[in-house]
Amino acid sequence: MEKRKKKKSEWFDWVKALLVAFGLAFIIRMFLFAPIVVDGPSMMPTLHDGDQMIVNKFTYLIDEPDRFDVIVFHASAQKDFIKRVIGLPGEHVEVIDNVLYIDGEKVEETFLEKKDGLYQTLTNDFSLENLPGEYEVIPEEHVLVLGDNRGNSTDSRMIGLISMDQIVGKTSLIYWPLDRMQTIGE
Q: Which residues form the domain of 131?
């Protein structure tokens, strides 16, 4: 009889441990970190199609996005996009002859691929006023995002500014494939 009780108690302990583990995994996945797979070439050369990354979901609960953060956001109810933050609230953004200007000041984009000193990824000229919404400055609680592959990216130039409510989180760690494992920054 004692043996049966001990076996039942052991089995119950295992079930409790598994429930706690699944509960913690659920909480971590829902509120802290989540995996995402890069879909398409819009962030080349920084990110490649099929790269698997970790999204930090809580960082923007305690901090605001910084220029050049790579973020994941809800582009629609069915689709999340990965893009780079270029413009922040209160700023005016424009690109003229492949040069980024924030509030009239030239800003270097070191992450864009250059060959022989020239950008291989051309950015068609645009100004904040030409984008959907026709803003003069980026409103509070919004950011302007662009893909690193400017010639092949659906970003703020087409879909408009991104509200903070749409942002899922920041991503900076590629964990798969192993030969591309790295952290990304500017």
A: 38-183
* Omega of the bond leading into 177 within 30 degrees of 0 (cis): yes
Residues with a known catalytic role: 42, 83
Total residue count of the chain as it appears in this document: 186
- Per-residue pLDDT, 118: 46
Q: Give mean pLDDT, residues 6-11.
A: 70
How many whole angstroms separate alpha carbon 74 and alpha carbon 138? 19
Q: Do 13 and 47 have their domain in common?
A: no
Burial 30-66 (b: 16+ CB within 10 A, else e): eeeebebebebbbbbebbeeebebbbbbebbeeeebe
**73 and 13, same structural domain?**
no
